[in-house]
Design brief:
Strand content: under 5%
Length: 406
């Protein structure tokens, strides 16, 4: 495989207590020393990020590269540390976002107006400003009919499509309990299912994959624009109204089709028909596909899905420290979530150890000659995402890839 990774300098987990003594105990509880090192680095990087954000684009409201992503980070820091100043920071940044919404048809959590509105709902709810929280929720729900109908050529994927709006609703329910009725989520999933059936029929691939999706005329495979990200949501319990029969009959064979695309290395191609084995990113490649595999294992109990997920872990361990940097979308922090997902599923300390090693790499931020991203302090490309990961590592069993995992 051609690689865009730097050589992994860390010894792998050998199963001995000595290997993990400085990191965590036999139950996976972080040692006070390692937890303190993470916390200190979080504080240090936050100060650097705050300074760097002074020159950020004042008009970028998005979660992906803009102010909402920073608000989401502070909301997470507030959840983990309980520090009131973090919640006020989240309010400050989401308020900036609300002043510069795209006001276009961008309706997703990561790249559109749904992200700022959804984060605003949660921030105002935590501040006990009920009226404002309700107002932002109503504004968010005004997009619902347009999303279900797919007007304006809305795609189905996560970054710019229906699943990106769906995540906004899921995010609010995760944070505040079932505020949004499940039928809102089910209606979107029904529309995505219908869209996938139509495209599969149009391409004449129904026998191989009853569902098919494309973005900009390409059938992407990864989590951000592709099949695996869509199937991850369609397999969530209750997301399809009559899921009992259609998840096995439509989603499972489509997941199996993605599994057959796996490359010799254990990685997945960026698109159907493009077998270049280059990208080991959350957005394209095994680090994003793993969430579909683990959800398929939970849903159907087929050992093959777990085996393939473990292969993803092996690949990320070898090729996951990227020249592109330390971010979530295509960097070491995003790849490290692969290990946290495997750890939550298996409780195998090997995966927690590997996450800690990637954290060590991220804590040496800037020392590896990596590329500087276009938005160096943002949530999905830059430092904010790294801080988010280091914070999640403090509570590994509660960790979730931000703006994506249910």
């Amino acid at each position: 495989m051609e690689t865009r990774a730097l050589k992994n300098p860390y010894p792998d987990y050998d199963g001995s207590p000595a290997c993990t003594l400085a990191l965590f105990d036999s139950q996976g509880k972080l040692t006070p020393q390692f937890a303190q090192r993470l916390s200190s680095k979080i504080t240090e990087l936050l100060a650097i990020m705050e300074n760097g954000l002074r020159s950020a684009d004042p008009r970028d409201c998005t979660s992906y590269t803009g102010w909402t992503g920073i608000a989401l980070l502070y909301l997470h820091l507030h959840s983990v540390f309980g520090e009131p100043s973090f919640l006020l920071k989240a309010h400050d940044y989401v308020s900036r976002s609300l002043r510069c919404l795209t006001r276009r048809h961008d309706v997703t959590f990561l790249c559109g107006d749904a992200g700022p509105l959804a984060v605003a709902v949660v921030v105002h709810h935590r501040l006990q400003r009920v009226q404002e929280a309700d107002e932002y929720l109503n504004r968010l729900l005004q997009f619902h009919l347009m999303v279900v109908k797919g007007s304006g050529g809305l795609p189905d994927e996560l970054l710019y499509g229906r699943m990106g709006y769906l995540y906004s609703l899921v995010f609010i329910n995760q944070q505040l309990g079932e505020r949004i009725p499940l039928q809102y989520i089910q209606q979107i999933c029904e529309a995505v299912l219908g869209s996938g059936e139509n495209l599969s029929k149009r391409f004449g691939v129904r026998d191989q994959s009853p569902l098919m999706y494309e973005w900009h005329q390409e059938q992407y495979v990864g989590a951000a624009h592709g099949l695996s990200g869509i199937y991850y949501y369609l397999m969530q319990p209750g997301f399809l109204a009559a899921g009992a029969e259609r998840v096995p009959s439509l989603v499972k064979p489509s997941v199996d089709y993605v599994c057959r695309l796996r490359l010799h290395s254990g990685n997945y191609p960026p698109c159907i028909g493009d077998d270049r084995d280059l990208l080991v990113h959350w957005c394209h490649g095994a680090p994003g596909v793993i969430y579909m595999l683990l959800q398929a294992y939970k849903t159907f109990g087929v050992p093959q899905y777990m085996e393939e997920a473990l292969w993803c872990g092996e690949l990320v361990w070898r090729f996951g420290l990227l020249k592109k940097g330390y971010g979530l979308c295509h960097g070491a922090a995003g790849n490290a979530y692969t290990f946290l997902a495997l750890y939550r599923q298996t409780h195998d300390l090997k995966h927690l150890y590997r996450a800690c090693m990637f954290a060590d790499w991220c804590m040496n931020y800037g020392a590896h000659g990596c590329r500087t991203p276009d938005t160096p302090f943002s949530l999905f490309e830059g430092m904010a995402g790294t801080i988010y990961f280091l914070t999640d590592l403090l509570q590994p069993m509660k960790s979730k890839f931000p703006a994506f995992e249910v």
